[in-house]
């Protein structure tokens, strides 16, 4: 092992230390307050940062024009910059060469995602127009032996365990950074539409893949409640409107998710 390398079991220990099971109480022992969406201007569709005076962000405007139909509302559990702890975990649970690191990182992400879904449940029901009864995951570009990584993650989230699974698979049309198409995916298994479906992805950048999955489901007759994702990648140097949004939304959006790591400087923040 060369200088600067870390063994898989050491990295497992690091993830477990930083990603302990989330508490349901805040530092003072009180139950956390009810969900509050921060006042920074946000996109009507993806709830991401938006230029002052605009209703939608640039990416969602492009996707609306590309798809020719309304977008589903989006909510995310964590906002991160590339290179931060959340970003490293989201990469590791899919791509780390160590199976042990992939397993423990997926477990930690699932625990935090589940805590957010439970804490923000009332606000999500309002934003999505009601509860959901089924779950569909956005197909991966690189499915593994046990399915797409996000499928493995969702199976470990208790608050999603009872929902009907609507399987989506890759289809013929291309999908990319700002290229969305309802024909990029297809509903497999011959399920009949029955109840609102929640679309789940591990991370959202432009939303093209998630909104393509939404459009596919709608064409198949399903009513889509909304899209949820574990993380949202942000670059606060893009402009002051992103910096303002970042100052309020950075980190995990759950007051009770306090790390034992002293770098966790405030409720809902986990800086890595």
Would you write up a description of this structure?
By secondary structure, this protein is an alpha/beta fold. The chain has a domain at 70-252: Rossmann fold (3-Layer(aba) Sandwich), CATH 3.40.50. The protein is 33% helix and 14% strand. It contains eight helices and eight strands. The protein has helices at 8-18, 58-67, 85-95, 99-119, 121-128, 149-155, 208-219, 240-249; strands spanning 74-80, 134-137, 164-165, 168-170, 185-187, 197-204, 224-233, 251-252. The strands form two sheets. A five-stranded parallel β-sheet has the order 1-7-6-2-3, sandwiched between helices. A two-stranded antiparallel sheet has the order 4-5. α6 links the parallel β2 (134-137) and β3 (164-165). The longest helix has 21 residues, at 99-119. The chain is globular, with a radius of gyration of 18 Å. Mean pLDDT is 81; it is low at 20-38 and 258-272.
Please describe the structure with a list of short key phrases separated by commas or semicolons.
272 residues, Rossmann fold, 8 strands, globular
Beginning-to-end CA distance, first to last residue: 24 Å
Uncertain regions spanning at least 5 consecutive residues: 20-38, 258-272
In CATH terms, what is the fold-level topology of the domain at 70-252? Rossmann fold
Rg calculated over all Cα atoms: 18 Å
> How many DSSP helices?
8
What is the spatial order of strands in the main beta sheet?
Answer: 1-7-6-2-3
Order of H and E elements: HHEHHHEHEEEEHEHE
Which word captures the global form?
Answer: globular
Q: Oligomeric status of the shown chains? A: single chain
The appropriate CATH architecture of the domain at 70-252 is 3-Layer(aba) Sandwich
Relative strand content = 5-15%
What percentage of residues falls in helices of 4 or more residues?
A: 25-40%
Largest sheet: 5 strands, parallel
How many β-strand stretches?
A: 8
CATH class of the domain at 70-252: Alpha Beta
* Overall residue-averaged pLDDT value: 81
Helix-strand category? alpha/beta
